[in-house]
Amino acid sequence: MELAAFAxxxxxxxxxAIVVVGHRNPxxxxxxxxxxxxxxxxxxxxxxxxxxxxLQVLLYTGAIVVLFLFVIMLLNVxxxxxxxxxxTMQTWVAGVGALVFFGAMARLIWESxxxxxxxxxxxxxxxxxxxxxxxxxxYLLPFEIIGLLLLVAVVAASWVARRPTPDEEEEAP
Amino acid sequence: xxxxxxxxxxxxxALFAIGVFGALTRRSGIAIFLSIELxxxxxxxxxxxxxxxxxxxxxxxxxxxxxxxxxxxxxxGLALFIAVFRLRKTIDIDRINLMRW
Lengths: 173, 101
What we know:
The complex is a heterodimer.
Chain A: H1 2-22, H2 26-46, H3 50-75, H4 87-113, H5 123-126, H6 128-136, H7 140-160, H8 166-171
Chain B: H1 5-25, H2 29-54, H3 58-88
Helix pairs in contact in B: 1-2, 2-3
């Protein structure tokens, strides 16, 4: 049962990830990123953390991806123009680099863990209550800092994206 | 039948490699950013898989913080794209060479 669910979500994630990097239309790329993120949410459930799955759906697909779509449509980003000249070489180097990275990681993972089974899922591990206790005791300071970080990010984003003043526009090349 | 944790790690490595490939080959700034989100997501999957393997919930906590940082990063990054677009009327990274020596 877990195997079937894992295979489903893993294939879905891999397939949509390939569409994300392969499709020239940014809107299609973004929509398949949604699929990849939802598949990852499914994997989070299989890994025994439904809380993370809910966060993933709410935060990533609900907020971040909407922001992406908003900017894509605001800037009217069209289809990417096809590679001009230098494209093929770059593609080969990137492809070989990515494959070498994956090969090295796969070997490392396999030699370290092989078929090691995870400990049986306990009710305590899955329950969200434990996470909440961790969040408000051990991780209280990082939690507050994250709140501050989000505030700073919002202020910075609205400052950076503001309409430029006239003399700034003159400086623009 | 239960799934060995190493399969989750392998899947995450594959997703990360796909993201690396995309970030290195795409030309549209938005597409590069999407690839980076993909890599971030793979890293989150690794953290959750280790949390499961070690039976230690701190890994899930780190994913929680990583998600919040991702939200901040997306907001600032997309704002930068809007700012660059105002100046150059494009977000094609081949034509954004302001900081290239």
